[in-house]
Amino acid sequence: MKYSTWNEINNIEKKNTIWACAFDYDVEKQRFSLRQEPVIGLIVKNKFHQLKKDGYSLRANGVDVYSRVYADTKAECDELFVELMNKKISYLQDCIEMINKEKRDYKI
């Protein structure tokens, strides 16, 4: 199952490991502002903690639970990661279309 809305994330079973990812691109700074490929971890006290390479220990610094989207399996998380990229591409294409319309409407 995939969890991407606030309500879905709030209802994730906290005892089990879960896959997480994030993606955002900052147009103004021309860089990724948030890019986390799918990783496995645990949610502890509203923080997502990635598992270390040993598969048992948690990394000390967690991130806010709402800064990621989640899935039960790696395959589902891979799909979510691609969906996040496609959403950003669609948004940027809409921006380009809007600017092109303004350009066509501009009279010299």
- Strands of the largest sheet, in order across it? 1-6-2-3-4-5
Largest sheet: 6 strands, antiparallel
Alpha-carbon Rg, integer: 18 Å
What percent of the residues sit in helical stretches (DSSP H or I)? Answer: 25-40%
Oligomer: single chain
Count structural domains.
1
Shape: elongated
Structural class: alpha+beta
**Percentage of residues in DSSP E strands:** 25-35%
Task: Using brief descriptors, characterize the structure shown.
alpha+beta; 108 residues; 6-stranded antiparallel beta sheet; 34% helix; 31% strand; single chain
Per-chain topology:
Blueprint: E1 2-3, H1 6-10, E2 18-26, E3 31-44, E4 47-50, E5 63-64, E6 69-71, H2 74-105
Report on the structure:
The protein is α+β, with helices and mostly antiparallel strands. It has one domain. The radius of gyration is 18 Å and the shape is elongated. The mean pLDDT is 90. The relative contact order is 0.20. The chain is 34% helix and 31% strand.
